[in-house]
Write a structure and sequence with these properties.
By secondary structure, the protein is α/β, with parallel strands linked by helices. The chain is 30% helix and 9% strand.
Length: 305
């Protein structure tokens, strides 16, 4: 259910106007099950204490995380939330998300609604029905099913994903749904959640920054790992000492021991520490190549200049 829109300021907000008391990162998952193992949520307040994992006894579901975010939206919590997913498909490169489809949405919020409607009967906020649509499937590379409109090579990319590549990261096309590193399924399920949060939690840069309450930004956990000094190909942390060493790069104290050190948990903890520090970098809120059209259609990864 869409709630009442948060109050917006009519003036142009500057960095000094933005105040966050809480920081959180959600490592997302597109796995079509009730409780994906890849869902992880870390939270921190200001200062230098290490982020902590928030986890229900049986693990997170996507609807439960959507509800958690919605509750903070209603409460007006001053929290910056990073979500590790792509909030939209490429648009600028071809003049549309699905240029051959007469129903192709005109902007990102319409895209979220479109995917949610076509996947309305899918459980756990998955999006398999959308991918089975005869027009949609033409654009995706799926296992043993490459659509005729999926281009040769690595697929289509958003403008900010070209920026990721320029930073020596390894972006994947959201239209590629094959391989362990694919992000398309996560992004599709994430878009269904973003649709449910419409009017409750603004999502940068699609929405104006509010003068209070939470804000969601797209993050890329590998970017935080690089900022912590972890080398490409060796950025996954699976032990306590390595996590503390990486956290120290962001002026963060050692973490409370975890029951299990998996990529999703450590990614969420480390990226939350990075987000708490990165929020003060004014350049990250004003990327050079972020235009109003990109902000309406493709969005941007926070941390990409």
């Amino acid at each position: 259910m869409v709630g009442r829109a948060p109050r917006r300021t009519t003036r142009q907000l500057t960095l000094c106007d933005i105040r966050f008391d809480h920081f959180a990162v959600i490592d997302w998952s597109g796995q079509a099950v009730e409780r994906p193992a890849g869902l992880a949520l870390a939270h921190a307040t200001g200062g230098d204490a290490a982020p902590t994992l928030l986890r229900p006894e049986r693990g997170w579901t996507r609807p439960a995380l959507a509800q958690w975010l919605a509750e903070h939206g209603r409460a007006g919590t001053r929290m910056l939330v990073g979500m590790d997913l792509s909030p939209a498909f490429p648009f600028l490169d071809a003049g549309g998300y699905f240029p051959s489809w007469d129903q192709s949405p005109a902007d990102a919020p319409a895209l979220w609604q479109f995917i949610d409607a076509l996947s309305a009967n899918d459980p756990h906020l998955s999006a398999n029905s959308f991918l089975l649509h005869p027009e949609a499937r033409r654009h995706f590379r799926q296992l043993r099913d490459c659509g005729d409109l999926f281009p040769t090579g690595r697929g289509r990319f958003r403008v900010c994903e070209h920026g990721q590549a320029a930073m020596r990261l390894s972006p994947y096309s959201c239209f590629n749904l094959v391989g362990a590193a694919q992000v398309g399924k996560s992004s599709l399920t994430g878009m269904r959640v973003l649709h449910r949060l419409r009017g409750l939690v603004p999502i940068w840069p699609f929405d104006p920054l509010p003068d209070h309450g939470p804000v969601i930004v797209e993050i890329y956990t590998a970017l935080a790992a690089r900022a912590a000094g972890l080398r490409k190909g060796l950025s996954k942390i699976r032990d306590s000492a390595s996590l503390d060493e990486a956290l120290a790069a962001f002026g963060t104290r050692p973490h409370a021991p975890l029951a299990r050190y998996d990529d999703h948990s450590t990614d969420a903890i480390l990226t939350t520490a990075w987000l708490r520090r990165a929020v003060a970098d004014a350049a990250l809120w004003h990327p050079e190549h972020l235009t109003p059209k990109i902000a309406q259609t493709e969005g941007w990864t926070f941390g990409v200049y």
